[in-house]
Amino acid sequence: MKHPIRILGIESSCDETSAAILQGDKILTNLIANQTIHSKYGGVVPELASRAHQQNIVPVVQQCLEQSGLQLSDLNAIAYTKGPGLLGSLLVGSSFAKGLSLATNLPLLEVNHMKAHILAHFIDDNSSIPSLPFLCLTVSGGHTQIVLVKSPLEMEIIGSTLDDAAGEAFDKSAKMMGLPYPGGPLIDQYAKNGDPNRFHFKVGEMDNYNFSFSGLKTGILYFLRKEKEKNENFIAENLTDLCASIQHCIVGALLLKLEKAVKDFGISEVAIAGGVSANSYLRNSLKDKEKEGWKVHIPKFEYCTDNAAMIAMAGKFLFEGKIFGALSNPPQARMPF
Ligand code: KG4
Ligand code: ZN
Asked: How far apart (Å, rounded) are the C-alpha atoms in residues 185 and 182?
């Protein structure tokens, strides 16, 4: 092979259709078509998501190739998200990847979306690359995990949420305050002008490195109901403080378990991944931990939420390990880690 490995990545697990091209460890292009249709429903509508993927997949991959200046014949493999995710969404990306593989004879690489969020840290983009082993807090709309990363192909979940994911906690809290979906980024934005200690919310106390966020939702619901009886404009008049206090509670719960893991495992090399790692309060709180000797790795903003760059990067490790996919393998909504 004369040139560095080139991999086309395809991501379609939820509501983002994305294609990217990796060359060596660098990303040449990473295109994402966002689906705005879901905001008025307060959450992702699976049927609408798969329909939008169908519309987006061909133009997104085509533009991605055009922008990279490469032809299909310049590639070494096609990596796609096999799971976990919404089955109808996964089917679009996986069927497309398989069709393209058949037409081009390029090998398939079956990527686990959650592992790919973590492996985004290995993209060569001038941000720091964690040394092995490291601990990764993976926080998205569907998952909340602390993962012990021994190598790119060897990871172990040491803790996870027993109910809602952290992103879900953000989105559901936002919904109760009348904010559109996804509310996580909006809470982050409003919280910048709010007092995090004005209101006190609680999350469930779990053993070991596990989390529980479902109680927070109920707590906020009853609190808002009570306050609105006294003042119907309570939310509007206190939105920034509410957002800051809720964010403080969620991020505090995440940090507490991460701190415990760092101490118990004696590993101070720490990374964050997944959509919620875009949260500025979480990013800043983690940066503060460097004063305590932690080595903190925060992904570039564009690699936090769903993207195909991370799928291509994860695919490269599979390619190097000669772990190839097969046309007969179906996507998996609940793919084991
Ligand atoms: O990883 P991701 O893009 O999709 C999933 O695989 O779930 O994560 C999406 C989640 C959503 O819940 C969204 O509200 C949350 O990440 N999120 C944020 C921020 N940006 C995205 N939550 C809090 N603060 C943010 N800045
Ligand atoms: Zn994700």
From this structure: 7
